[in-house]
Amino acid sequence: MEVTSLVELLKGAKELADLARVDSAQRSDQRQQKRIRDLISTLRLIYFSPRGVLSLLKIIAEGSYPTQDQIELVLTDFNDAEPFVYRARHHLDPDFDRNDQALTLKAQRVLREISYGKGGVRSKVQDLLNWSLTYEEPISGEEAQKLIQEIDALNSAIEDAEEALVATLAAGSA
C-alpha cells in the first residue's frame, strides 16, 4: 500500500464518525454492542506496537543495526502472530457478516480498507525484515523510514476507527 492510499485511508477512518448516526435502538442492542466491542478488540490486535517491528525499523532508520536478540524476539512474535492477524483482517471485512446492522456502509468500507492496508503493510514488513535480518542483508535507512511512515499512517487510521467505535459504544450505553 502506497503512502497516498494510506492518506486516503486516514480520511476514510474519520468517516467512521458516521457510526454515531446509527439509530439509538440499534446502538443499545446488546448484540450490536458486542459486535462493536469485537471490532475494537480486532483493531487493537492489528495495531503495530512500538515494541514490535516498528522498534526494529526505527533502529535501522537511525543508521544502526538491531542486535540478534532483538531480531529473534521481535521477528518470532511477528511471524507467530500471522494466523491471528489473518483472522482479524478477515473479521474487519464486512463480507464476514453481511447481515451486520451495527455499521453503516461507509464504516464497513473504512474497516475493509484498514484490513487491506494492514495486509499490504504487513507483507512489506515481511519482505523487508524477515529475509534481510535473518540473513544479515543490509536494509537502507530510507527503506525503513518509508515503511515507518506507512505503519504510522495505518496506526493513525486504526486509532481513529477505534476511537469512533468507542464513542459509538459509549453512546449506546448512555
Write the layout of secondary structure elements.
Elements: H1 3-14, H2 24-28, H3 30-46, H4 53-61, H5 68-80, H6 82-92, H7 105-134, H8 141-173
Helix pairs in contact: 1-7, 1-8, 3-6, 3-8, 4-8, 6-7, 7-8
Structure description:
It is a single chain. The chain is an all-alpha fold and 174 residues long. The chain contains eight helices and no strands. The longest helix has 33 residues, at 141-173. The model has no long low-confidence stretch (mean pLDDT 82).
**Strand elements, count:** 0
CA radius of gyration is 18 Å
Number of helices, counting only DSSP H or I runs of 4 residues or more: 8
Low-pLDDT sequence parts: none
Query: Mean pLDDT, rounded to whole units?
Result: 82
Oligomerization status of the protein chains: single chain
Largest sheet: none
How would you spell out the order of helices and strands? HHHHHHHH
Helix content: over 70%
The end-to-end distance, rounded to whole angstroms, is 38 Å
Which structural class is indicated by helix and strand composition? mainly alpha
The best one-word shape is elongated
How much strand content do the residues show?
under 5%
